[in-house]
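Message: I would value a second opinion on how I read folds in token form. Give me a protein, with the fold worked out from its sequence. Write it directly below this note and I will take it from there.
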Amino acid sequence: MSAKGASAGPPRIELRLPATHRFTRLGRRVVERLAERQGYEPRRVEELSLIASELLSNCVDHAQPSGEPLWMQLAIAFEPTGWELEVVDQGGGDAERLNAALAEPLEPALADLDLDQERGRGLLLLRSLVDRLEASPSADGRGLRLAASKRWS
């Protein structure tokens, strides 16, 4: 695991973690503690924790077994009235297709939701909790970068 913080601008931390569910839990706890230190209200800490957990879990779930260790990166910047969170994986994916799905109206997708399915609710949950969620190819081209943000007054 590695971490680095920036000295200018809003408090920001970056973590590079092995792409396993164990480290998803660690990343979630780090985000919770940092949000608490920023003075975020408990409900905002819980919401941010859920968002970070869902994004990191997606990294693990979509990691492609290649025989080599896979990594995920988490970066978060805190501001008094919001945050920006970025997660990068090495699991491939199509950013254009994902962005097209994210651009679909939320209400019809919720109406068509099959609650008996074990999967498929994560992006809907994320979309309902954030102001912005978008995908782009990762810098190394091996996976996706998902960026989310939330603001409040």
Remarks:
- The first strand starts at residue 2 and ends at 5.
- The beta strands are 2-5, 12-18, 71-79, 82-88, 132-137, 144-151.
